[in-house]
Amino acid sequence: MRFVDEYRDPERAAGLARRIAAAVTRPWVIMEVCGGQTHSIVRYGIDRMLPPGIELVHGPGCPVCVTSLEMIDKAHAIASRPGVIFTSFGDMLRVPGSRGDLLTLRSRGADVRVVYAPLDAVRIAKENPSKQVVFFAIGFETTAPANAMAVWRARQDRVENFSVLVSHVLVPPMIAAILQSAGNRVQAFLGPGHVCAVMGCREYEALAARYRVPIVVTGFEPLDLIEGIWMTVRQLEAGRAEVENQYARAVAWDGNRAARDLVNEVFEVGDRKWRGVGAIPKSGYRLAWEYRAYDAERRFEVEAIDTRESPLCISGQILRGLKKPCDCPAFGRECTPQRPLGATMVSAEGACAAYHQYGRYLEAAPEGRAAAPAGP
Predict the structure, then answer these.
(1) Domain co-membership, 321 together with 216
(2) Which residue stretches, if any, does this entry annotate as coiled coil (predicted)?
(3) For 281-305, how does the pLDDT look when each residue is reduced to its tens digit (9 = 90+)?
(4) Domain range spanning residue 65?
(5) Model confidence pLDDT, tens digit, residues 82-113
(6) Residues 300 and 347 in one domain
(7) pLDDT score recorded for residue 74
(8) Over the stretch 155-182, which tens digit does the pLDDT of each residue have?
(9) Alpha helix stretches (DSSP H) within the chain
């Protein structure tokens, strides 16, 4: 456990928290971008170790949470067709669309299968030549190389009954959208370590310079996060706005060149809708023209979708750092992990799921209602 325990040392964490407290002279709002970071912060109570002047808000770094309702509904439309084997990672099966989720669709007879790697879907296509096999390719830049490899492999092997429903999103355009949004309070970011392991840190330099915000690429263990906050506070207090790499043991400044080259061959940048946020220009990947034959949207001609979001869900405001899960009147009551109204509750990386998992729905509730009881 050495390589885990050394990043969970409570004495070192407390020492860093004291250094942060000694350095702070005014309030600051910092957003952690990644959902994995959010879960670590809530699990270990890192936000509660900080001085009152430091507020952490939770960003859009949960790939399941930001997959648009329209894309979820397109997945349902494709999966419900005869002759289709629809494949996906397991965390997408319970994400609510306008009319239910993929798990419910499977219970009604649709051939929906969980896979553990995109290449598993290519294998299934080879084993079922009379079926159309579709893989739901979602995620940030982190999962793009594996999804690109599946498409590249299918083309190399001439697997013509395989296609992907692409809903990849990109972090830098979303950061820019948050900073440009009305009511924005975010003054600095803990950058997404896993994304930067693929893409590197360089593309964040323009954001830091243009918007005058510190961006510290940070890992996921308690000491990673507290050190990342310390590095961010030092910049804020000094009036600096730079990109720093706290997670140097896993992130190279230029990322993984081989992975980036594959992604750039198979995908191109295009506009993308984000759930709860709306359309952001040039904020996602789509298949490059040379790989268009593997585009499930083209193959199945799913275009206009009438979507219906729950009127109680405020996940869009949570994803932009404007609200926290406990600010939602449905949190822990009408919306629970067993009966989620929005993707931020159903996803393993969602902020609402983190707050619920670690008991914060039992604490401060919005004014005018009592905290919800434990249990489903």
Answers:
(1) no
(2) none
(3) 999 999 999 999 999 999 998 865 6
(4) 1-309
(5) 999 999 998 888 888 887 889 999 999 999 99
(6) no
(7) 94
(8) 999 999 999 999 999 999 999 999 998 8
(9) 2-5, 10-23, 35-44, 46-49, 63-66, 69-79, 102-107, 118-127, 144-156, 171-180, 193-199, 205-211, 222-238, 257-266, 296-300, 315-319, 343-346, 351-357
Q: End of a domain among 280, 309, 338?
A: 309
In whole angstroms, how far apart are CA 135 and each of 73, 160, 347? 15, 13, 18
Give the tens place of pLDDT for each residue, 346-366: 777 789 988 988 887 666 444
Assess whether 348 and 247 both reside in one domain: no
What length does the chain have? 376
Residue-wise DSSP of 329-343: TTBTTTB-SSS-SSH
Query: What is the distance between the alpha carbons of residues 239 and 223, in angstroms, rounded to a whole number?
Result: 24
Q: Judge if 96 and 137 occupy the same domain.
A: yes
Residues 107 and 237 in one domain: yes
Same domain, 299 and 213: yes
Based on the fold, state whether residues 157 and 13 are members of the same structural domain: yes
**Whole-angstrom Cα Rg for the chain:** 21
Q: Are 300 and 78 in contact (CB under 8 A)?
A: yes
Q: Is 78 contained in some domain?
A: yes
Structure tokens at 121: 């879907």
Structural tokens at position 260: 């980036």
DSSP state of 24: -
Residues 6 or more apart whose Cβ sits within 8 Å of residue 58: 31, 32, 35, 38, 318, 319, 321, 324, 351
Structurally, the chain folds into a number of domains equal to: 2
Average pLDDT of span 199-221:
97
pLDDT value of residue 101: 87
